[in-house]
Design brief:
Number of helices: 19
Strand order of the largest sheet: 38-39-40-41-42
Shape: elongated
Strand content: 25-35%
Protein name: histidine kinase
Low-confidence stretches: 1-30, 1089-1112, 1245-1254
GO molecular function, one term: phosphorelay sensor kinase activity
CATH class of one domain: Alpha Beta
CATH architecture of one domain: 2-Layer Sandwich
Mean pLDDT: 85
Keywords: ATP-binding, DNA-binding, Kinase, Membrane, Nucleotide-binding, Phosphoprotein, Transcription, Transcription regulation, Transferase, Transmembrane, Transmembrane helix, Two-component regulatory system
Structural class: alpha+beta
Helix content: 10-25%
CATH superfamily of one domain: Histidine kinase-like ATPase, C-terminal domain
CATH topology of one domain: Heat Shock Protein 90
Organism: Niastella vici
Number of strands: 78
Catalytic activity: ATP + protein L-histidine = ADP + protein N-phospho-L-histidine
Largest sheet: 5 strands, mixed
Distance between the termini: 156 Å
Length: 1365
Amino acid sequence: MTITIAFHMLTKRHILLFFLPILYLTVSAQHTPVNFTSLSSKDGLMSNVVNAILKDSRGLMWFATDDGLYKFDGTNFTAYRSMAGDTNSLRSNSVLSLFEDKQGNLWIGTGGGGISLYRHRKDNFTNYPDTNNYGGFATNGVVRSICSDYTGKIWIAQFDGLYVFDPGTRQVREMKLDAITNKNVVKRTLLSVIEDSQRRIWVGTDQGLFLYKRETDSFQPFTHNNADALSLSSNFIKSITEDAFGNIWVGTVDGLNRLLPGTSGFASYKNTGPHAIALSNNEINCVAADKEGQLWIGTNAGLNKFDPHTGNVDVFVPEPDNIHSLTSKNIKCAYIDKQGIYWFGTFRGGINKYDKNGNLFNLKLSNTFQENSNKASIVSAFAEASNGNAFVGTDEGELYEFDGKTETMRRVQFARSTNGPIAIISLYRTRNNQLYIGSYGHGLFILNPATGSVENLQKGAGATDLNSNDIFCIKEDSKGAMWMGTNGDGVNVLFNKNVIAKFTPHPAAPNEILLPVNGYIRAFAEDRDGDMWIGSHGAGLALYHTATRTFTVYAPNNSHLPCDKIESLLYDSHGQLWIGTFGGGLSMYDKARNRFTNYTEKDGLQNTTIYQIVEDGQGRIWLSTNTGICSFDPATKSFRSFNSQHGVQNNNFVHGSGIRLTNGQVFFGGLQGFNYFDPAKLTINHNVPTVLLTDLKISNKSIIAGNGSPINEHISVAQEIRLDYKQNFALSFVALNYTNPKQNSYAYKLEGFDKDWNYTGTVNTASYTNLDPGHYTFRVKASNNDGIWSTRETQIKIYVKPPFWATIYAYLFYFVAAAGLLLYSRYRGITRLRKKFALEQERQETQRMQELDRLKIKFLTNLSHDFRTPISLIMGPVDQLIASAHSTNELDKLRMVRRNARRLLNLVNQLLDFRKMEEHELHLQTEKGELISFIKDVTESFRDLSERKHIRFSFTSDIPKLETLFDRDKIERILFNLLSNAFKFTRAEGSISITIQAAKNQPDPGNQWLAITVTDTGIGIPKEEQEKIFERFIQHDSPAHILNQGTGIGLSITKEFVKMHGGAITVQSEPDKGSSFILHIPFALLPHQVTVQPTAVPEMLELPVKEPTDASGAPAVLLVEDNEDFRFYLKDNLRTNYKVLEAENGKEGWQKALASHPQLIVSDISMPEMDGITLVKKLKADKRTSHIPIILLTAMTDEAQQLRGLGTGANDYITKPFNFEVLNAKIKSLLELTSTMQSTYTKQIKVVGPELEIESADEKLLQEIVSYLETNITNPQLSVEALSKQVGMSRSTLYSKLLQLTGESPVEYIRSFRLEKAALLMEKSNMTIAEIAYQVGFTTPNYFARAFKSKFNMLPSEFIAKKRK
């Protein structure tokens, strides 16, 4: 507002001198309201003392305070302060002056830190001077003002001197204001320096104004002279500025001065004197000229707007009742930017801003006009007065009249209540100038504004009385009737203050009409047809047709009305109905089309709860909501939102509180007061915002520019961002809009990733993750608060580095590696082919050698088999001769023969064992026995050799006896090899010993570990060869006098046999002293049992056989052997006890077995024509010969061969060579077993069929015979011929078979079967003897009786008497 000058600001002498002139001063009224907003410490400033303001060439605002420098982008402050130890920060936090040169460099003058240059690219400072080598231009200088001349040199007004700094050469020159004379130099304080449009340098000090003369390099002074009216008004120059017309204005402590063109004189402007103007104070702190030529003058007593053409002055000072007034009267600096925004720095009031581009709504706070200022009343209703003022009603029962011209409130008295304040809910001024006041709980008040009389209508029982005291809305229709909306009781229609109709949900009286909606009425609107629209809270809309007196209801369930809670209605000048809902947004109903059009937040609506709707003079719709005021342009269908940034009160608006006056002003009431404004005077911000990048974050951390950083320069000026692979980043940006930055809208796009623009509203951050390597361009644009989009985009290049495996160096490496791999693979291929060829040759050679070895082994195996038969023929007769020899000489010779035969047999066995070792066929064949005696027996076989070679031979054992499991053959071979070697390499008179001891360590409690040591005094073994002697074919070089005829495999076989027993063998030897072979072998401990003596050859026992089947009476034994000598040997030994039959191959043996039916067959395995295995299979498969026991003979000692032979059905298996007595004993045993079976089958003649399944062929044969006899037992004609035919055998074969199985001939077997059956019948039945005789097939009872007595040794009658007791 405009005020007159304050007299208390003048000195006493001024008051007396200029009192009368000031009384006649006129001060012009403002044509355009000036509203201010502020920025202070609550917005981010550290200090509210602002010394200088500047907007740089990039659009950023800079504020110099006494506690640092601040950069402002419209949204956020960035503080720059002195940091200890940081040479790139400000030297002092007291910032006094700011200046930007033509190159865009920002220079900062500090109080005690010299001058600093802000570097945009690094976002830090370079301080000048760097050292105190420039005289008075010091690092701690106080710089009050800075400017640059047309040559680019910087002029620095330091507190105590003027300096010119050349940024290019960094040279400093001190400028002397006085000519060099012998007079004392005057001490001056420099306060300001500028260069005008004519390239003149002006310097303001506390002792005058100085103009720099370039031609003479001197200064022309301008000072105050009381005698000169055209001199400066004061020598204390605080501000110098140039306006748009080239006028130089000088602000002093005693008025404003203007340099008169073409002269050296000044025109003075003060609030005193003959040409006084209404300045609030003559002490001028700052002067700023706008483009219209008006001066904005800051003083310690307020801000002055001075029009030099008219002399008018508008003064602005803080106003407690106006939130849009200044925050401080002490204006220290002023700055007007090119966008028409006025910035003012204050002392302790922060920054004040006047923006011509912005729309600041007027706000009248309730606590500024109500009686009780401690409690803010809610402005609940408006009505227009006849004089154009506005009636304002509150919920505290206060009614005011607001004068918009003077912005004053007048209290209107209308009623009082003894129960407290009368809450005003609604206001309406009728066409006859009556003010209807709807209250809550107190009915309707009718006020005559002209007379002040008040009439109160309340709820009553009469037909013309109101039916409710809660009047929520009031509307006068075109006929002059007043419609009252109540809170639950419907609608009351009044005419001439009498109720003429009542619309209620529950009509009861004659004048009550049914209302089709609930009675909670919130709004009325009358359309052009005179029909009344009624809005309810919770039941939708009801349209009352006055012509037909009917209703039409619109609700969400029968129309597109978005909500059934109606808050406000407006029928506009274009004939359209607007509906404001509670939470459902805005709806427009077109009656001609009978259609609702809805608008919500997604269409740009600020909030979906609409309390009041008004229409302005331009046809725009204005809405009050929960979050501010919103306007809607039906032509463009666009919304504009206004919030606290526009001066709108922060709290909610209220139901129905809004109006448009005749003069076009719009009012909206809310919880804090009311806003009012003229929509026609609202402006649109046409300033296109520039977008700046403000921050780069990687992994949620802000990035500082520098070497090794993704950006080399500050993000606001950086040209490129270089990111590592898979780095997630976020870019923040801001549009430089200082009018209403919170309503900026943004859109961004990352070229190379985004296909379309991302419109993000007010969100000013873009985040990206997992970008592929490559080049991108980030583009961003923005719109200001009025939707004006920037035409120039801000962009920055982004390069995402490939991972190390996708860099150019990696690809070079891949190429080199691939080439190397190709070359290497080619080399490997060639090498592989060579190796393959070599391996193939080696494989063929190996196969050839393996085949040769196989042939060798086969040859040795066959040879060993061939050897074993002759050895058997040698050892067998020799054993017999030894048994019958009586001469000692003969006995020694025979023993020598037997010993060498056994040696030969051992060699043969070693060859076989070697083959088995090669083919991994060796297995232990353990059996239970007494180990110590067995070892002693083996040892004793070398006794005669020791005597003959005169070698001392001993056997000792610490363990007398050990029953265990061991492989007799392999233990014997181990000892035989060791003792053979010991006797071979021990000279006469030497000694050999065998000792058996229990091992010291017994790791396994279930085994007995024995240490068996064979010690000799032979030639010994060198130490270097002791580990080799257990390898195959390794022989120690023996002396010439010892003939070593060994094969070199004995010790290797010995070691293998020891390992098979789970033991180990070691050797201790010294050359010429002898050797000791130590065996450590575990033997399993058996449970305590009777000692089993070594098995002896059983004596020949007479078999209890039946009568012989041939003339000799001896059992028949068939010998099948291809070796004639061996066959003769066996026949010669067996013929004394058996009838011996011979066959030289398996085929002949098969034929003789069928022809002769021998009692036992002894067969070799390896034979021509048919081998022994095949012969056994044929014999066992034939029912005629399957009962004959078979013994197999072979030179093959492996278990697999034995199992194969036994698996075919052979009864026993003997390996060559063998002791004949063993063969003889096994023959006798098998014949005895056969005899036992015959006896068993004879005693168990089957009367009843067997219960168990018969598996063998003999049992199947007997079962078939018994079954046949059971079926035909009563037939006296039952014969042997019929039985043989039944079982498929000849009579002779059946005879032999039955005789073999049962010991009876077929006739005897049939008779025995009948008699057994008869005995059973005698015991179990009551039949007579004759009946039983006939029943079992006897022809006469007499023959039956004789036969029965012959079998059972008693007559049938005696048997019956015995059994039937």
